[in-house]
## 1
Amino acid sequence: MTLETDISCLRQLPLFRALPLPRLKLVALMGEKLHFDAGTQIIAEGEKPECVFVVLQGDLELKHLTAEGHGRRLSLHSGSLLGDVPLLTGQNYVGAVTAKTAVTALRLPKDLFFELLETIPDFSLALSRDLASRLYRLADFTLRAEQVH
């Protein structure tokens, strides 16, 4: 992908739509583009977050398994963010993240992520909306799953 393609991919994500073009270019240039083959573990459970990943292409799986091999799995797709919640809360990753397909992601260093939050109100608002949307979906899933039992 070229810089223009990266910018175009970022511009399609609600989180980055409000960024002015110079900031969007900065994100694309300062971010490290990474490629992962299917089956590659990207994040280990319990790892300390040092960045945020923006999934440009591909599908991932977040999973937490018990010693008996039981647990929960969550599918993540293009446009997903990884690492924002543990980074904001100061917590370690609650599960391992593995590429289900070939994945292209932009790795944003922690300092860049916090700079965007501190200097661009529209970015902070977009992230707040994204987090609220994920929390709503999680609550909805949890409540409906409990009704089935």
## 2
Amino acid sequence: MKSSAMKKTNHAIRLREGALATPTDLPATATRDIAAALNVLLADVFSLYLKTKSFHWHMSGPHFRDYHLLLDEQADQIFAMTDPIAERVRKLGEITVRSIGQIARTQRILDNDAVYVEPSDMLAELRDDNRALAASLREVHGVCDDNHDVGTTSLIEVWIDETERRTWFLFESARRGDSSGH
């Protein structure tokens, strides 16, 4: 009987802490480190999504239609990353972000609450944010690779390519006939 009671207590503790009994051959230290890196990445992805969508909503000027459509397409692509990131954390038996507040405390991509932002500044800011996201993706890839998490690294490789493509499109869209685009 004592054993049954202990099992129930341990089960209750795990439920309260949110732990999953997800089977994985990765060690607990690996799942913890990978989940921590992915949760920071997830906060950044949500932040970049909302900023991209905000700039999409507030776009103006002679290139309105092209930029509006570009940012809408990019926002959709960024948002599409959120569920696989969060689900990957859960597949590892860990807990992922739970609220906007947690995202705000964790994000590294800065918000832009300005009432008006020039379209060229929007594109430049998003270009830089996507470039920073690509660097973060590479860092997380390294954590996953060090821990032999091929499932996560394969997802990240696709997201790096998508992020570099967004960076390239934003760079080219913001160019004004010079060769630097800065």
